[in-house]
Amino acid sequence: MAFTGTLKPPATAPADLIWQDGVPESARFGDVYFNRDDGLAETRHVFINPNRLPDRFGKLSHHGQFVIGETGFGSGLSFLTAWADWKQQTTSLEHTVLHFVSFERYPLTREQLQAALARWPELSALSDQLIRHYPPLMNGVHRLVFEGGKVRLTLFFGEVLNGLGQLSFQADAWFLDGFDPQHNPEMWSDEVMQSVRTHSRPGTTFATFTAVGRVRRSLEAAGFEVRKLPGFGRKREMLSGTLATDTNAPGPVDNPNGPVAIIGAGIAGTLLARNLAERGLPVLLIDKAAKAGSGASGNAQGALYAKLGIEYNAQAELAATALAFSQRYYRPWQGDFWHPTGLLQLATTEKESERQRKFCERNQYPGDLLTPVTANQASELAGIEIPVEGLWFPQSGWLEPAKACDRLSRHPLITTLFDFEVHRIGRLEHGWCIQDIHGTNQQVSKLVIACGHQTAEIAPVTGTLRLKPIRGQVTYLPESTVTPPATVICGSKYLNPVAHGQATTGATFDIRNNNPELTAEGHQENLDELLRMLPKLPATQIPSADALHGRVAFRCTTHDYQPVAGELRTESGDKVEGAYLFTGLGSKGLVWGPLLAEYLGDLICEQPLCLPSHLTRRVETHRLYPKREAGQ
């Protein structure tokens, strides 16, 4: 039976499958996902060979990239087949990237995907990775990264025409899939084919299982040269073709001549440095401190936490997408600086309880991202008595931020330059010159400023950037004085599980306080709020506030409390060539950082973007300037 219920955002309707002899068929469209006799052979015959992929992969050079677009992800079989050929043909190449951009209106669940792909044990090394990293079934864009960044999958869950309108990429080849045009005409409309053309370079190829005249005419009208080929199995014909070449088209993108400088070795800067290095770009990571993670990212513990809004708008979409991406990103670091204990967001006040009630009424998030829990369920999860209900984030947890910054900055293509306080940034004919207070110069090709609220002081633009520091003091509770929870607990404050003999609680939110020193008042505020949040917390002999240890850091936020990641622009809106900002992450840098580093990596390397257009606008840099009145 096809899904007929009413979904609330951001949930997307999953595929409705009928299984026959282990082969999935769409109940909605009355068509199979792959050939019953040999789906893998069909994929090679229909998509791989007509697009000449093995030959084209083999002709790539070091640092080359190839982009495949697909109009129906389905079981992921075509993606896995292309990935397998990519691995085989590019083994000896360094820093080549396969980008695969695919659209799916009714995605399979993780369990359905696993069952469908079990037919091909020869692909299990790849399919296991896809299943493990498969995103929650939420509408919108999901970026999955494999092979240390050599394979990047951009999945759009939703209507194909909406996705094509929101994503920025140019394909080298297309897999035009999506069930029989007679049963799924929206996938094969003239508008979709024109949008496929818009997202194609001169010389882009396509292949499709169908030979329907309407589809052929639509592709020809979009500018493709179309030819018929023998179909697979009992299917007599299929279509393939090429977009006319253009001798005036720009050539392949080259990497910058020289390193990319990142000023700021906090979580934002080190995440971006690692991202660019894994793409093959040399990075110069600069900080005025003596080591990475010395500023706001230097706390002993930090929660992977996003407070999602009642209404599912662009702000909530960015936060939810970033949270899911960060959970996937940190997974390889489990046992090092990442501790996936799960996280409870408690309704500790009447106001928060009402907010969570409305949140659950108006939204429908996948259970692998979050689920409501009762007080008893929360108590079982935390291992201590929890007096109120809340939301459970099973894939979240906590990190050691300073340790994360150190680990991320250790890569052969990352050169660290510490104790270097930037005094002046000057424009060169091709790049930038960065000078410290002693007059030492560093010349680089591109520049990213990621140094928190100090970004405004050194950015090579005139005008005021609306960035502000907010003081936060955390308190360390000795393990001998408190029985900590087994999971992270968030409410008016947070409490983490024990690490290295202590548990971290806090943090204060001091907007107008610039005192860098610890205060007994800050510790007392953290303790009072903690005990209000967890009145039955097992605790004995907690030291007095003036005897506790902790840390003070200044988080950087923006006027609208949303992060900044993108090309630096002047006050008049002109692009500052080769310069970028990555700042304003506030107290959510651990969540926002990985996705926005991925986005900036895409932007700097001129590769397909992992954010849709309405979210790139949300994080763009020009909004930092105060709005001018008309006539000014």
Question: How would you portray this structure in words?
Answer:
Helix content is 27%, strand content 26%. It has 632 residues and is α/β, with parallel strands linked by helices. It has three domains: 17-243, Rossmann fold; 260-295 and 402-466 and 560-624, FAD/NAD(P)-binding domain (3-Layer(bba) Sandwich), CATH 3.50.50.60; 343-394 and 468-558, D-Amino Acid Oxidase, Chain A, domain 2, CATH 3.30.9.10. The strands form six sheets. It has an eight-stranded mixed β-sheet with strand order 6-7-5-4-8-9-11-10, sandwiched between helices. Helix 3 links the parallel strand 4 (65-70) and strand 5 (97-104). Helix 4 packs antiparallel against helix 5, helix 6 (160-166) packs parallel to helix 7 (190-198) and helix 7 packs across helix 8. It is globular and about 80 Å long. The termini are far apart.
Strand order of the largest sheet: 6-7-5-4-8-9-11-10
Q: What fraction of residues sit in β-strands?
A: 25-35%
**CATH architecture label name of the largest domain:** 3-Layer(aba) Sandwich
The CATH class of the largest domain is identified as Alpha Beta
Strand count, sense and barrel status of the largest sheet are:
8 strands, mixed
Quote the CATH topology of the largest domain: Rossmann fold
**Which of globular, elongated, flat, extended, rod-shaped describes the shape?**
globular
Considering the chains and any ligands shown, give keywords for the structure.
8-stranded mixed beta sheet; 31 strands; alpha/beta; 3 domains; FAD/NAD(P)-binding domain; Rossmann fold; D-Amino Acid Oxidase, Chain A, domain 2; single chain; 632 residues
